[in-house]
Amino acid sequence: MSEWKEINIEDLDKSACRLIGKDWMLVTAAKDGKANTMTASWGGLGVMWGKNVAYIVIRPQRFTKEFIDCSDRLSLTFYGNDKKEMLSYLGTVSGRDEDKISKAGLTVKFDGETPYFEEAEMVLEVKKLYAQEFSPECMLDSEIDEKWYAAKDYHTMYICEIEKVMVK
Question: What was the pLDDT predicted at 17?
Fold first, then answer.
C-alpha cells in the first residue's frame, strides 16, 4: 500500500449517503485465497457497540455472500465517478460465470487476509461483528416487503468494525 495513506475514520469528510447510495462501492471478500466482489449501493457508516462500523446488506443468491460468510474480514472500496460503468458491470455479472475482476481491469491486493483493489480511491478494511437475515415480520412498513422483496430473497445484514481507512 505504498501510495496509500492511512487516516482516522473520524477524519473522513465525505457523506456516507453519497459514497454508498450515489457513487456506489465494491464489497470484496476472500475464500481459499481467491477474492470475489460485488457492487453495492445500500449500506451505511456509523457507531455501534462503541465501535466505528459499516453495515452492508447482501442477498442470498449473490456469489460474494459465500466469500463474506467464509471470511472474518472484507473491504469496502470506493472510486471516482469515472468508474460508474465498471461498477455497473461488477454489479450485474457473477463471479461464478467469469473472472469479472480481471475483465474489469482491477488488481487484487491483500493487506493480511483482507482483499482490496489497487485502483480504488478509498479502502475501508472491516471485520465482521454481526450478521442477521432480514425478516418480513420485522418490516414495520409493509410497502418495503412488497416493493423490494417480491421474490422473498431477504438480505443478510452484516455489521462490521472499521479497522483501517486508506486513501490515495
Answer: 95
